[in-house]
Amino acid sequence: MTLSAPSARAVDLRVEPVNNILDHVERALQVHLDRDTMVRKRRSVGARTDRRTWVRVERRGLDKIGVQGWNGTECAARLEGIAQPVWRGCVVWQDADEPVMWRADETELLPSAPIGNAILSEDPKLEDAWWQAFNSSLDVLAAQDTRRVATPDTVTVTQALVTEAVRGIAPTADFDTTVERWVPAHADLNWANMTAPTFSLFDWEDWGNAPRGLDSASLWGSSLAVPALADRVRHERRHDFESRDGKLMTLFACSKILGPDAHPKDPRLEPARRMADQVIAELQAG
To answer: Exposed (0-12), middle (13-18) or buried (19+): which is 245, by Cβ within 10 Å?
Structure first.
């Protein structure tokens, strides 16, 4: 019999009081956090330190921590040839009152500012050198070897998950949804997790093996409100998008945009639907 962890209450760290948590981190890491530099996200809080590093604190329910643990940033430190902040150390503890774990990772500062929000509404006008560094890191990542499994949005990516997502937007389509190639992926690739003008990729909590093209399709989906940018992503990562797995991952990304929680005024809806129809036709044609 498999025992499941109790579910944690939903919390948004953008509004939840976090001073006690940050105090705990300061004592554990023996560092001072500059609260004026604090960046608050739904699942994490980050701040600059007095030793010119960055600390990212994440809250995760025990039910969202699988057998591989949740030490993605630590494990990513061994990856070679990828532009990412150097990892310095961490502290992890279990909440005394809830079925929750907290984790604080300390890394070197980013070389440049994050590009923007996860979903962009205007073109960041990235230089060719940026795209070259971006492609290099993604290609090197895909060539690595790991036993980790990607957990995009803290959900373990499996064949069943892919099939469910694809069938959700192509319920009557006649093609096989079986993934042929699984490769290491960042699994949270969006414009909030990369820097410019100097390229760097950060927030490695969810990386691991995933269907080829997951990262490329995720970034494309985050770019659809800026058609020229979405086209550039497809051009730069065309070897992913032209593969069969890449087409499945395009549908996977479209399913997140076109799902039941879609906002009717999301500018990505129409281009996502057009692309989904095109890819479905290509897969059916073999």
So the answer is: buried
Cα–Cα distance measured from residue 109 to residue 52, given in angstroms and rounded to the nearest whole number = 7
Contact 22, 47 (CB under 8 A): yes
Domains defined along the chain, listed by start:
19-108 (3.30.200), 113-285 (3.90.1200)
**Cα–Cα distance, 212 to 220 (Å, whole number):** 14
Beta strand ranges found along 175-222 (DSSP E):
182-185, 195-196, 208-211
- Cβ atoms of 241 and 213 closer than 8 Å: yes
Place of tokens 């940033």: 73
Q: Which two tokens stand for residue 89?
A: 């150390």
Largest CA distance in the chain: 60
pLDDT in tens for each of the 286 residues of the chain? Answer: 344 556 778 889 999 999 999 999 999 999 999 999 999 988 899 999 999 999 999 999 998 887 787 899 999 999 999 999 999 999 999 999 899 999 999 999 999 999 998 899 999 999 999 999 999 999 999 999 999 999 998 899 999 999 999 999 999 888 999 999 999 999 999 999 999 999 999 999 999 999 999 999 999 999 999 999 999 999 999 999 999 999 999 999 999 999 888 888 899 999 999 999 999 999 998 7
- pTM of the predicted model, to two decimals? 0.91
Task: Identify whether the C-beta of residue 230 lies closer than 8 Å to the C-beta of residue 223.
Answer: yes
Buried residues in 164-183 as b, exposed as e (16+ CB within 10 A): ebbebbbeebebebebeebb
Q: Which helix (H) or strand (E) holds 184?
A: strand 182-185
211 and 245 in contact (C-beta within 8 Å)?
yes
Alpha-carbon span 55 to 77, nearest angstrom: 15
User: What is the spatial distance between Cα 48 and Cα 68, in angstroms, rounded to a whole number?
Assistant: 29
Tokens of 62: 């025990």
**CA 152 – CA 131 distance, rounded (Å):** 23
